[in-house]
């Protein structure tokens, strides 16, 4: 019987906008990551049967099927196909889903689910040439599409989340991320530049701050509402990065001398209220748990993307989860959120966390623009 397993998973350290990767093209960053993935796994690129790539802003240097271009840059044989997809913030996670589903179906023996985003070189919304005003007016007349920041504010209202609560969550995310430095086996050190333009090897996520000044955090402006609670400090950082997950059929991989590290217990994508927009993580989690026949008590590692602190806090409150169990190594508020890469990157991080702590089962979920969410449950082997 076919069974998709994770064989290797890596991510670059995430760079700040305008930071270490400012001169690195996103196709080159992904190519570096693809090569690093297969080098770690010890698998020949010719055995890969598809490269499925999540990228949100598919224009300019991220256009023209960046997955295919990156695979060619990485030296993969021309016979290895690739595609690029956009499920917005869940793109990298969806890429892993599609790769594993292709293996489970018997269509593929090996596939890569990956993602990349250079938010420095290809800014958000540049694919549509502006903001929501560029969308179909008939759609805007039928659906109340608002900025995600305002959705995050509405979530804070609905769950009674104060500015102090959001800022405390953000500070804790940085504290955990700083404390976990050195534990991230998934990190693939990558070439970049320091502030002076000198070539360096980026070893850790650039955005993590070991010491957060509460006064400075409290002084940040609330850009979405005059008297709001959402700030740049309690939202995910705009970042650059790439990540990749190697998936294969369990029996084929073992025969080839590879070690399966985890299997998939559930993969889901859901639609939800497009105005609240970021609450889909709640039904996605419930659906994934039901598919796997598990409860949250069975989960050893919880990874929820910190697009906004209010999203993660509302999720913990609604599902009655101890916040100490959520994002043990911090999240996107601290390490950043390079849109298309984050889903594969969180998968790699979660697998590292499970292995480092001896955990067995991990849950990953991500909110997505326009009211969607993805969720995955994996079991370590």
From TrEMBL:
Q: Which Pfam families match?
A: Thiolase_C, Thiolase_N
Domain spans labelled Thiolase C-terminal = 259-380
Task: Identify the SUPFAM superfamilies for this entry.
Answer: Thiolase-like
Quote the catalytic residue positions.
89 (acyl-thioester intermediate), 337 (proton acceptor), 367 (proton acceptor)
Give the residue spans that cross the bilayer: none
Q: Which residues does the UniProt record annotate as the domain Thiolase N-terminal?
A: 5-248
What NCBIfam families is this protein classified in? AcCoA-C-Actrans
Q: What is the protein name for this chain?
A: Acetyl-CoA acetyltransferase family protein
């Amino acid at each position: 019987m076919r069974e998709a397993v994770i064989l290797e998973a890596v991510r670059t350290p995430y760079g700040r906008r305008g930071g270490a990767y400012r001169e690195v093209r996103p196709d080159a960053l992904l190519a570096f990551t693809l090569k690093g993935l297969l080098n770690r796994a010890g698998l020949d690129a010719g055995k890969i049967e598809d490269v499925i790539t999540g990228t949100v802003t598919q224009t300019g240097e991220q256009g023209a099927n960046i997955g295919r271009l990156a695979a060619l840059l990485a030296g993969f044989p021309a016979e290895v196909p690739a595609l690029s997809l956009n499920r917005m913030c869940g793109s990298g996670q969806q890429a892993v889903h599609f790769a594993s589903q292709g293996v489970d179906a018997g269509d593929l023996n090996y596939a890569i689910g990956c993602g990349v985003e250079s938010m420095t070189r290809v800014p958000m919304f540049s694919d549509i040439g502006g903001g929501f005003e560029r969308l179909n007016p008939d759609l805007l007349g039928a659906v109340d599409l608002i900025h995600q920041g305002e959705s995050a504010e509405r979530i804070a209202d609905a769950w009674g989340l104060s500015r102090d609560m959001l800022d405390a969550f953000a500070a804790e995310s940085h504290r955990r991320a700083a404390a976990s430095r050195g534990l991230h086996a998934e990190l693939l050190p990558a070439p970049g530049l320091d502030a002076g333009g000198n070539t360096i090897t980026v070893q850790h996520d650039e955005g993590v701050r070991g010491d957060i000044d509460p006064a400075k955090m409290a002084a940040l402006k609330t850009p979405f509402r005059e008297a709001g609670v959402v700030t740049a400090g309690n939202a995910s950082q705009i970042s650059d990065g790439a990540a990749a997950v190697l998936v294969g059929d369990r029996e084929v991989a073992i025969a080839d001398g590879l070690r399966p590290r985890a299997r998939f217990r559930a993969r889901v994508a859901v639609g939800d209220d497009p105005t609240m927009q970021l609450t889909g993580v709640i039904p996605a989690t419930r659906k994934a748990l039901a598919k796997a026949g598990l409860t949250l008590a069975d989960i050893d590692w919880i990874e929820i993307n910190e697009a906004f602190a209010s999203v993660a806090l509302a999720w913990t409150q609604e599902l009655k989860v101890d916040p100490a169990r959520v994002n043990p190594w911090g999240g996107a508020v601290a390490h950043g959120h390079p849109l298309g890469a984050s889903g594969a990157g969180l998968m790699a991080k979660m697998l590292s966390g499970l292995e480092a702590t001896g955990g067995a089962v991990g849950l990953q979920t991500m909110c997505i623009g326009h009211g969607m969410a993805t969720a995955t449950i994996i079991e370590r082997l």
